[in-house]
Amino acid sequence: MHILVTGGAGFIGSHTVVELLQQDHQVTIVDDFSNSSPSVLDAIKAITKKDFRFHLLNVSHSEKVDELFKSNRFDAVIHFAGFKAVGESSSKPLAYYYNNVTSTILLAQACVKYGVHKFIFSSSATVYGDNKVPFKEEMELLPTTNPYGETKAMSERILLDANQAHPELAVTLLRYFNPVGAHPSGLIGEVPSGIPNNLMPYISQVASGKREKLFVFGNDYETPDGTGVRDYIHVVDLAKGHVAALDNLESGAHIYNLGSGKGTSVLELVSSFEKVNGIAIPYEIVDRRPGDIAVSYADASKAFDELHWQTERNIDDMCQDTWNFEKNYQQK
Ligand code: UFG
């Protein structure tokens, strides 16, 4: 298949492109490098020894999207491109709504207009809000506490409605839990801009000496050790989940959680990182971060039953591959 991957130079996008190329799919990446860099494209080539097409393009630009579809024949779209900083979304709501929602509408419109019949969307477990764990696909979505989460919920709604009105456009929404880790080659991984918002990149920068210590946001949650519990998923497992979703997408509209089904606390992740990599991670307990929930983990059984997909990499693998990438990246 010829697959358009938007945001294909980003963290999850680049790992997915690697898996797609390794399955002999033809890939066209579009990215505007707003949160990634051209060197990622070379790294993808180095890992796969395969070629792909690339267009420097912002997918919330109507004429550019139309031109792209007019001059290419795609079989499927995997839409990753979007702004993703939860905190920033509250200070720049208009930019987040405009960028994330417009791109989804334009790509879906182009699929309908140019006869592309498969659309896979990069959604997030954040749409579950503070539901009861484990989160299941059929749960009623609860309001999220930030515009970023709302853009994911809105995009989901738009794509489900598009499928209703245009049944020839099959849609799969993938709700990611907490993606971490990096490709075992150490050539691609997560490169946060500025101070990392997320836990694993922050731990990794403490390990490298770039940050003095980790701030643990609260130890008074109702969890076994009082710190927040999340369902961490290795980015390579997540990427393979996209290939499974694509292989199984024929018609209709589908929603899958992509997670491990297991919860890990902040302190458990820290101690796993320390053990696997032999590096101490100093930390300080501080106040809770506004908007955080206590516990989030998936019921991952639907993806297993229908896509025959499940995670294969554990927390230790995630910590090892994260640090392997960080070391490699520091040397550049
Ligand atoms: N945490 C810290 N210190 C930090 C960063 C995080 O203690 O410096 C804690 C948080 O309080 C939370 C846990 O580590 O308990 C995980 O936090 P992350 O910021 O890594 O991840 P979140 O679960 O808050 O959010 C992530 C993505 C969102 C996505 C969500 C889906 O950032 O985009 O998962 O569940 F929507």
Q: In total, how many beta strands?
A: 13
Order of helices and strands: EHEHEHEHHEHEEHEEEHEEHEHH
CATH class of the domain at 2-180 and 234-259: Alpha Beta
CATH topology of the domain at 2-180 and 234-259: Rossmann fold
The description of the largest β-sheet is: 7 strands, parallel
- Parts with pLDDT < 50 across at least 5 consecutive residues: none
What is the C-alpha radius of gyration, as a whole number of Å?
A: 19 Å
| Beginning-to-end CA distance, first to last residue | 35 Å
The CATH superfamily of the domain at 2-180 and 234-259 bears the name NAD(P)-binding Rossmann-like Domain
Beta-strand content estimate = 15-25%
The backbone outline, from C-alpha atoms, is: globular
Helical fraction: 40-55%
Strand order within the widest sheet?
A: 3-2-1-4-5-6-11
Structural category: alpha/beta
Q: What is the average per-residue confidence, as pLDDT, rounded to a whole number? A: 97
Bound compounds, each kind once, are: uridine-5'-diphosphate-4-deoxy-4-fluoro-alpha-D-galactose
Q: Assembly state here?
A: single chain
- By CATH, the architecture of the domain at 2-180 and 234-259 is named 3-Layer(aba) Sandwich
Throw out a few tags for this protein:
332 residues; alpha/beta; Rossmann fold; seven-stranded parallel β-sheet; two-stranded parallel ribbon; 17% strand; globular; binds uridine-5'-diphosphate-4-deoxy-4-fluoro-alpha-D-galactose
